[in-house]
Amino acid sequence: MLDPVTAIGLASAIVAFVDFGYKVVKGAAEMYNGVDGALGENMTREAVVKQMMSLSARLQSPDSSHMVGQDRALCVLSSECHKISSDLLRLLESLRPAKPNSKSHSLRASLKAKIKDSERRDLEKRLDSCRAQLALHLNFANIASVDKLSEYVRGNPEALSALQNQVSELSTLVCAMGLATQQLIATQRRSVDKILYDSILESLAFGGLRHREDNIMEAHDKTLQWIFDNTAREKHDSLLKKHAASPGDEYNGFYRHERGEITVEDSALRLQEQKKLLNWLSSGSGIFHVSGKMGAGKSTFMKFLGMHSETRKRLKEWAAGEYELVVASFYFWRVGSPLQKSLAGLCRSLLHDVLKAHPDLIPDVFPDTWKTAVQASLTEQVRPEIREAEVREAFSRLVSNISLRTKHRFCFFIDGLDEYETTGSFDAADMANQLNAWTLASGNIKFCVSSREHNEFMGAFPSAQRLRLHEVTRLDIQLFVQERLSDYKSLDGYWDVVHSIVDKAAGVFIWVSTVVQRISPMSFSSSTST
């Protein structure tokens, strides 16, 4: 069985030979009589022979007697091309004038070429047959699979040099190649690029890159759905009608007959905040700030928002079809590693996610690192070290590069700004200012951030683009409590306990989670007796 690098090298050699050999056969007489023909005016006799010999040397294939299928077909085809190359070289030699500057010798060579027309036509047919077999047997999706090549090279690092050499040699070997050859060489280049891309991405990654995000609690099935509820207006109008019809039929802000409903005031606030957020996603700019008390569920909210399909749908409206949308997230974590609570970690994580999804941006974002990686030889090929200063510069380049701004729009979700740990003189206020500066650098980047309601954030971000989470999650908390206490629903005092928990929670989800774990049947007994 042929390994992927050998297979693609052999296939490239066959395609290049067939393409060049066909032109040699077509233009042999003209070329050796000094007439411009199929090979072009710059191809001297010596250059043609040299190139043909070089191509012929690349057609050496391994023993195919034990091979089957496509590998065997490729080797057989290579052997046939090698035979044709030998016949072509003999033909070229027979047509060479003994004295090139002698008119009589050139005339004899011309007459000899006419005599050998049948031999040339036979070679032409054989080349046509090889070309047809290429179309029949070579499945580029299998032979030239970028993933297959990259995987093989990772397991066999020494193969990278061979792959790089194939790209370089084939690029200079054939001056006018057919589409198939160009496709093979392009695939080889993509394979080498992918290996280098992966190397740079590995340098950006750090331990625990996804740890904080992975450990954030998923939103309860019935909570936060209001954010993308396209019937919110109708529900609010219905609530207004019910309130007008029976204004006294209330208990603790909730209707007795439909305990899952919220007050008119809370419903109106939700509708307002929903509109504010959705408008920002689909057409807004700058920074949208999700603020809230400690334990209000900000991280869960950010994870829900960042991963929801409707978020992408709205952001694509912002991209307006003219730009490629790029989305990434970062979750600060005070108890995590230094990179999980620093600006350096923020930049590394966002760059890693953006460039993993769009590796073609790497040469523009890390030009020096990319140039070094491309120029490195196999023995020098190691994972590049990317220093923190380079990371900061790269991120600034990502958000401010003119060529990138005209092609992409970036939306980043940053959770837990209050968990950022001051580094040197760069404090939380500086972090907020840096985020604002990045958005001002380009109208094609915006951030959705979350934090506690600390002064440095409340003052830095516009209140018109702020959602105070603890003010709009009362019904979410109630739905959560009802689900967790569903086993007690038949007990007297069930609703009293539910509403008591919701009222005391004041928007703090984490407190509710602790309380419902401690509820027992006795809790309802004490509720009805008081």
Q: What is the CA-based Rg, rounded? A: 35 Å
Form type: elongated
Reading off the top of the CATH hierarchy, the class of the largest domain is best stated as: Alpha Beta
Tally of extended strands?
7
Q: What is the helix tally?
A: 25
Major sheet: 5 strands, parallel
Low-confidence stretches: 35-42, 138-144, 173-177, 250-258
Overall tally of domains = 3
Query: What is the level-2 CATH architecture name of the largest domain?
Result: 3-Layer(aba) Sandwich
Distance between the termini: 82 Å
- Percent range for β-strand residues: 5-15%
Share in helix = 55-70%
Strand order of the largest sheet: 4-5-6-3-7
CATH fold naming of the largest domain: Rossmann fold
> Which structural category do the helix and sheet elements fall into?
alpha/beta
Mean pLDDT: 80
Protein name: Nephrocystin 3-like N-terminal domain-containing protein
Keywords: Repeat
Pfam families: NPHP3_N
Organism: Ophiostoma piceae (strain UAMH 11346)
Notable traits:
P-loop_NTPase, Rossmann fold, five-stranded parallel sheet, 3 domains, 60% helix, Nephrocystin 3-like N-terminal domain-containing protein, NPHP3-like_N, 530 residues, 7 strands, repeat, alpha/beta
